Amino acid sequence: MSESVYKIIELVGTSPNSWEEAVKNVVEQATKTLQDLRIAEVSKLDVKLENGKIVAYRARVKLSFKYGEEED
């Protein structure tokens, strides 16, 4: 078994519909530029309010991905 190193970053996704969609948006966007994503951990959920109504769901997501050189 080879040893690996993983990097963790934190991103915030938003959605007008749900927290689930906000998380999905983070993962879909991250896969466009990051390779070998391993774990997505939701660390915080909140909502944006305007005039006492929810206008956006927000999810703070920690993503881990393999860090380092590609193996041949």
Give short descriptive properties of this protein:
alpha+beta, Dodecin subunit-like, 3-stranded antiparallel beta sheet, 3 strands, elongated
What does this protein look like?
The protein is α+β, with helices and mostly antiparallel strands and 72 residues long. Helix content is 17%, strand content 56%. The chain contains one helix and three strands. The protein is elongated and about 55 Å long.
Summary, kept brief:
By secondary structure, the protein is of the alpha+beta class.
Secondary structure: elements and pairs:
Layout: E1 5-15, H1 19-30, E2 37-50, E3 53-67
Antiparallel strand pairs: 1-3, 2-3
* Known CATH architecture: 2-Layer Sandwich
- What is the N-to-C order of secondary-structure elements (H for helix, E for strand)? EHEE
Q: Would you report the number of β strands?
A: 3
Give the domain tally. 1
Please summarize the sheet with the most strands: 3 strands, antiparallel
**The top level CATH class name:** Alpha Beta
**Number of helical elements:** 1
| Strand portion | over 45%
CATH superfamily: Flavin-binding protein dodecin
Overall SS class = alpha+beta
Helix fraction bin: 10-25%
